[in-house]
């Protein structure tokens, strides 16, 4: 029964994406003009120069060390380009986005200025009532749920899908889990749009946030436990009717593509060991399956951050949307490395009065006065996969300006910061 239902879901997805009004490639005839526009809006001459100088740049006593991999990933660039092409291809039609195209306020504001509407939502519930069959609907880089895709198909909309192929790769892994009658354990955040979309393609799933939750699940697999407590704990993070006594007999691990790579790997190994302990190595294949679904871009940015942390730095600047999961993990790495690290989402977080408003990886807001010292200093810089270089440049220009204003002033080193949580 389980397999039939999943084949049906997979078939439904196939039927939708091969439909005449479903576009997954964008509009090539618009791409030249769009390419120029994107170049002018989102690239940065300063960052190009820093890259040419082997990622080190000095101005007015500020030494920038730019991470080797940072900023816009291929999937995000592609999604934004397709969204721009869509506007150009359908100049008069009403265009909707089912969600933010990517997690960056500047990019989403630009699309809004171009007359692209966002489907209203409240408490994770979307209201499609304004969407009409003659409208065009764009699906964002992290995908849309099967239910949304089916609804739009039935309505007769032209759908333009910008889902990153890396995200689709995870969905394919889920198909394989179901073919093997496994429950998909998804390492992710149940509220994150990508995980909401991903889980809609699995028949049986459990979303596990971190190793603490993984240990709880593993303990249940090995020793049993209180089923009611389990269900209450994962009430927002499991498929309908999930029964831990039945649905954890065989599992596969998949992930939200932007999670911390090392934690996804640790979790996959942990569940592999759990199943080995429970059923014996000779039976492992009947109870555990693994496919590598970690996105290269996420991995490269995290690896580059780790490399940067080998250096002597006075502080780290992480630039990216506050709802960007991959950016939060870059900040998390810097904090765990013991660095004073500031996560900002836009240049206005850095005030000319030498105040920075920033977040820590746990989502807390902080304000730091006098964050730029009067003395020369070194700052490590990185940005999330959905951050345009132009935003990073504007942040750096503000830092140069404050430093210039302060140069010569007698100031103590900045106070110990509260970023290390
Ligand atoms: S971070 Fe990876 S999965 Fe996400 S859009 Fe970029 S390439 Fe795709």
Task: Report on the architecture of this protein.
The protein is of the alpha/beta class and 421 residues long. It has 16 helices and 19 strands. The chain has helices at 2-17, 31-42, 45-52, 74-89, 105-113, 146-155, 165-179, 193-200, 211-223, 227-233, 244-247, 261-279, 284-287, 296-308, 325-336, 389-406, and strands at residues 22-23, 56-59, 62-66, 95-97, 116-118, 121-122, 125-126, 136-139, 158-161, 183-187, 205-208, 251-255, 288-290, 315-319, 341-344, 350-351, 355-359, 365-369, 377-383. The strands form five sheets. A five-stranded parallel sheet has the order 1-9-8-4-5, sandwiched between helices. The protein has a five-stranded mixed sheet with strand order 2-3-19-14-15, sandwiched between helices. It is globular, with a radius of gyration of 23 Å. The relative contact order is 0.13. Residues 1-6 and 415-421 have low confidence and may be disordered. It binds iron/sulfur cluster. The site of iron/sulfur cluster (SF4) has 15 residues, from helix 4, helix 7 and helix 14. Belongs to the IspH family.
Write the layout of secondary structure elements.
Blueprint: H1 2-17, E1 22-23, H2 31-42, H3 45-52, E2 56-59, E3 62-66, H4 74-89, E4 95-97, H5 105-113, E5 116-118, E6 121-122, E7 125-126, E8 136-139, H6 146-155, E9 158-161, H7 165-179, E10 183-187, H8 193-200, E11 205-208, H9 211-223, H10 227-233, H11 244-247, E12 251-255, H12 261-279, H13 284-287, E13 288-290, H14 296-308, E14 315-319, H15 325-336, E15 341-344, E16 350-351, E17 355-359, E18 365-369, E19 377-383, H16 389-406
Parallel strand pairs: 1-9, 3-19, 4-5, 4-8, 8-9, 10-11, 10-12, 12-13, 14-15, 14-19
Antiparallel strand pairs: 2-3, 6-7, 16-17, 17-18
Helix pairs in contact: 1-6, 2-4, 9-12, 14-15
The structure holds iron/sulfur cluster (SF4).
Iron/sulfur cluster (SF4) is lined by residues 73-76, 141, 164, 166-167, 257-258, 295, 297-298, 326, 385.
């Amino acid at each position: 029964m389980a397999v039939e239902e999943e084949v049906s879901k997979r078939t439904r997805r196939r039927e939708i994406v091969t439909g005449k009004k479903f576009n997954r490639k964008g509009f090539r005839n618009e791409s030249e003009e769009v390419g120029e526009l994107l170049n002018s809006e989102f690239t940065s001459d300063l960052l190009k120069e820093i890259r040419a100088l082997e990622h080190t740049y000095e101005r007015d006593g500020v030494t920038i060390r730019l991470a080797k991999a940072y900023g816009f990933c291929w999937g995000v660039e592609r999604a934004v380009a397709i969204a721009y092409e869509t506007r150009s291809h359908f100049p008069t039609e009403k265009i909707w986005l089912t969600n933010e195209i990517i997690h960056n306020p500047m990019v989403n504001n630009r699309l809004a200025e171009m007359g692209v509407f966002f489907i209203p939502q409240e408490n994770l519930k979307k209201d499609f009532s304004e969407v009409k069959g003659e409208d065009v609907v764009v699906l964002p880089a992290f995908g849309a749920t099967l239910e949304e895709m089916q609804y739009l198909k039935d309505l007769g909309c032209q759908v333009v899908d910008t889902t990153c192929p890396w995200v689709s790769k995870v969905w394919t892994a889920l198909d394989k889990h179901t073919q093997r009658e496994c429950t998909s354990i998804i390492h992710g955040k149940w509220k994150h749009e990508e995980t909401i979309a991903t889980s809609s393609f699995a028949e049986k799933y459990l979303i596990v946030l971190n190793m603490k939750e993984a240990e709880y699940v593993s303990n249940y697999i090995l020793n049993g436990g209180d089923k009611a407590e389990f269900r209450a704990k994962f009430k927002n993070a499991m498929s309908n009717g999930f029964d831990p006594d039945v649905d954890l007999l065989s599992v596969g691990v998949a992930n939200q593509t932007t999670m911390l790579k090392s934690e996804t790997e640790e979790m996959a190994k942990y569940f592999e060991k759990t199943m080995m302990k429970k059923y014996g190595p000779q039976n492992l294949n009947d109870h555990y399956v693994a496919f590598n679904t970690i996105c290269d871009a996420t991995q490269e940015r995290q690896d580059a951050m780790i490399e940067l942390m080998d250096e002597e730095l006075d502080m780290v600047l992480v630039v990216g949307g506050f709802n960007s999961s991959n950016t939060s993990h870059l900040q998390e790495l810097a904090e765990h490395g013991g660095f004073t690290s500031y996560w900002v989402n836009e240049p206005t977080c850095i005030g000319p009065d030498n105040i920075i408003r920033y977040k820590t990886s746990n989502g807390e807001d902080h304000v730091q006065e006098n964050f730029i010292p009067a003395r020369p200093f070194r700052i490590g810089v990185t940005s999330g996969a959905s951050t345009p270089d132009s935003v990073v440049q504007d942040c750096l220009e503000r830092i140069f300006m404050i430093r210039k204003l302060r140069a010569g002033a007698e100031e103590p080193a900045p106070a110990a910061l509260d970023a290390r949580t």
